[in-house]
Amino acid sequence: MKRLAITILLLAIVIGGGFVFLRWDRLFPAPAPRFFQGYVDADLIQVGPEIAGRLKQLDVDEGDRVRIGQLLFALDDAVLSAEVDLAAARLEEARARLRLAEAQRRRPEEIRVLEAAVDQARAALEVSRAEYERIKRLYEQKVVPRARLDAARGAWQRDKARYEEALRQLQTARLPARAEEISAAMAAVRAAEAQLRAARVRLQKSRVFSPVAGRVQEVYYRPGEIVAAGRPVLSVLPPRNLKIRFYVPERQRAAFAIGDHVNVRCDGCPRPVPARITYISDVAEYTPPVIFSPEERAKLVYRFEARPLQGDHRLTVGQPVDVYPKRREAKDPDGGGGNDG
Questions:
Q1: What domains, with CATH codes, occur in the chain?
Q2: Alpha-carbon torsion 284, 288, 289, 295, what sign?
Q3: pTM confidence score
């Protein structure tokens, strides 16, 4: 009987110890961490050319501060400059064709040739007319036969037709082009002007300027390398784009809201950096989408993001930090337990 009592007691101790072991987190919950672990991240501005080309000039390097509108780099523009010259020449040609269409159809030299032909035809007509009148008088005097009169009249009519033809050619040459020809010439001028503007824009795009003020974070290409259109040559970090990423256990997620203030501490920071929470993830990270028991939920963490409220800090991208809720700021940043998530 005594041995049975001892066996029952040992069995009760084992069962009770197992229960306590399995329910330790529920019976003795871990104290809430005094701070949350995180690191410094940033939204970098990737700066690249809109056109492809060989990198010819790099005016900045990693760590340099840049201002808005400062030249960052330039591509080789030899081909682009030639395209501008070609477009300018085509525009001048189109304008010359328009001037010619709006003026006379023929060049001045051609006009002078036609004027000479008119003068020559007029002189021949005067000679033939005088000859016809002379033969006509002789015919009336019965001196020459009828055939001689008919020949003189035919020569006079022939020279008259030649004179009228030369005169019409001269008048036609002095006329301006038709309305359709002038409209076509004007359209060609507008097209050439558009081509010149496009060539100049492409030439301007070979020089890239900083769209923001900040610090050059990383350079991806060096002079002599080929850069594809749209590929970033370097990245710029504006101070306002710096952010803090930290992780909060599931049990404490509901205690925070977007807009809450926190204090950020880092190694080498002389004082805490105030920040404001700007993002709270709705999804727990590194966990499968299954139903969790209360014990497993205690291991979940959610990603938070906060933006520094001042610019005179020493935070750098990738730097580990500790984030303290402002209402719980600790005097000793090394004390207390951190977040294991």
A1: 30-43+239-328 (2.40.30.170), 45-76+203-236 (2.40.50.100), 83-201 (1.10.287.470)
A2: negative
A3: 0.57
